[in-house]
Amino acid sequence: MIDWTPLADLIEKHDRFLLTTHIRPDGDALGSEVGMAGLLRQKGKDVRVVNTSQTPPRYDYLDPDGTFFEHFRAIDPATLADREVLVILDLSAWSQLGDMADFVRAFPGPRVVVDHHVSQDDLGAIFLKDTTAEAAGTLVMRAVKALGGSFTKEVATGLFTAISMDTGWFRHPNTKPSTLIAASELIESGAEIDRIYRDLFERGTLGRLRLTGEFLSKMKTDLGGRVAYSTVTRDDLHRTGSIPPDTEDLVDYTVSLRGVEMGILLMELEKGGVKGSLRSRAGADCAKIAAEFGGGGHKAAAGLSIDAPLEVAVERVLAAVRKALDPA
Q: For the structural domain made of 207-325, what CATH number should be given?
């Protein structure tokens, strides 16, 4: 169990906090920020939430008036000079900080990391981690309880989003009895499960649907059907009228095929290079494979980045997966 005393001490001694999370934030990242900001504001603290990436449209219900999440590129970093404590949520790697990495390195005050990923860099921070937790939102929920906060509707909505999305809407193997108990508590505190589901899954765009079709039409298998993979190119995004956040969850289609043990999505980035997502359904360790490319995550799900053309990245990742699944 995490000892939350270091965070409690910082809350006692400081007033102005800055929260951030990883590039291309998902529901766990953003929902955890909502929960942590709520806790800090209940303690009378001044909080700003600034992220490297813009908030994907599907999560706009977490910030209905558009003032909660700030985009790092859209502000003057000098305006953050008054921040006394930096809280980093849902990441433990420099590479996941993107454009904010240099800012974080230069940040003069205490840094706190609240995370559940296995991989870890030296971020010069106090690490409050539990790699057995299903989501960073689970850890924030524990912090709210440990530090005497309350689950307002806003906090409950954020944390329900965090936990539900990092468990694949309670379908993935990391879903435990305690996960469902936590979800029940958040619903009792005001999280509207039906509304959250509609906001997340029933407000798609034509562009996303067209991209899904492209992704499925290009899907291939390897190792006799034990591996399934597909790609998203810059041209796919432009032609379908979709945006990079529309690729979230597409990798799950790869492991929906019977007999697939490892699924792969590789996306060509606008600025060059490739982002990859791995999913495992039969015990193969995604985090170990991702680590070969400087990435990380969990055994069942991980991410990576490769500075190479897409076709090269495909071959390199497939080679690593083949070695992991069939070392002989």
A: 3.10.310.30
The string of pLDDT tens digits covering residues 149-194 is: 999 999 999 999 999 999 999 998 899 999 999 999 999 999 999 9
CB atoms within 10 A of CB 198: 12
State the fold for domain 5-201.
inorganic pyrophosphatase (n-terminal core) (3.90.1640)
Running DSSP on this structure, what letter comes out for residue 221?
E
**Strand blocks (E) in the chain:** 16-21, 46-51, 69-71, 85-89, 111-115, 126-129, 220-222, 227-232, 262-268, 274-280, 296-297, 301-306
User: Exposure of 237 by Cβ count < 10 A (0-12 exposed, 13-18 middle, 19+ buried)?
Assistant: buried
Per-position DSSP letters for 7-59, written without gaps between them: HHHHHHH--EEEEEE-SS--HHHHHHHHHHHHHHHHTT-EEEEEESSPPPGGG
